[in-house]
Design brief:
The chain starts with a helix and ends with a helix. The chain has helices spanning about 1-10, 20-40, 45-55, 60-80, 85-110, 115-125. Helix 1 packs across helix 4 (about 60-80). About 5% of the residues are buried. The protein contains six helices and no strands. The protein is about 75% helix and about 0% strand. The mean pLDDT is about 80. By secondary structure, the protein is mainly α.
Length: about 130
């Protein structure tokens, strides 16, 4: 869906009045990726430097997610618009994708037993 959204945003026929904004987003995304990665001089083989480098991926990722949404909407309109339950199928696919992400990444992102901030705050308060 991201590549489809990128192409739909660049061509812009189904976007109508939002064409200028979509093309601006495409240009910003491409320029950011090319310029940032060509100027970044951190060796990403070192985990600390990779973590610093990854912090700057949040902005292009948010733009990429816009393209995913545009592409998903275009694909649904193209292939599912003739179905009677078009909206229900679109919601079901969306919820399935979110559930799949949760199942796939829950263990690595689970911070329910992470007490780092509590320990940091207690240490700071105890020094007072």
């Amino acid at each position: 869906p991201a590549l489809v959204g990128l192409v739909v945003s660049a061509v812009g026929r189904p976007l109508g009045r939002s064409l200028a904004a979509a093309r601006t987003l495409v240009a910003c995304y491409v320029i950011y990726l090319v310029v940032f990665h060509s100027l970044a001089n951190l060796p990403i083989k070192v985990p600390l430097f990779l973590a610093v480098h990854a912090r700057f991926w949040q902005m292009p990722n948010s733009t990429l997610f816009v393209f995913v949404g545009v592409g998903f909407d275009w694909l649904c309109r193209r292939f599912l618009s003739s179905w009677k339950s078009y909206s229900t199928v679109r919601w079901a696919v969306s919820l399935f994708a979110v559930g799949l992400q949760l199942l796939q990444n829950y263990e690595t992102q689970d911070n329910s037993q992470n007490y780092a901030m509590e320990h940091l705050t207690r240490t700071a308060i105890e020094t007072l």
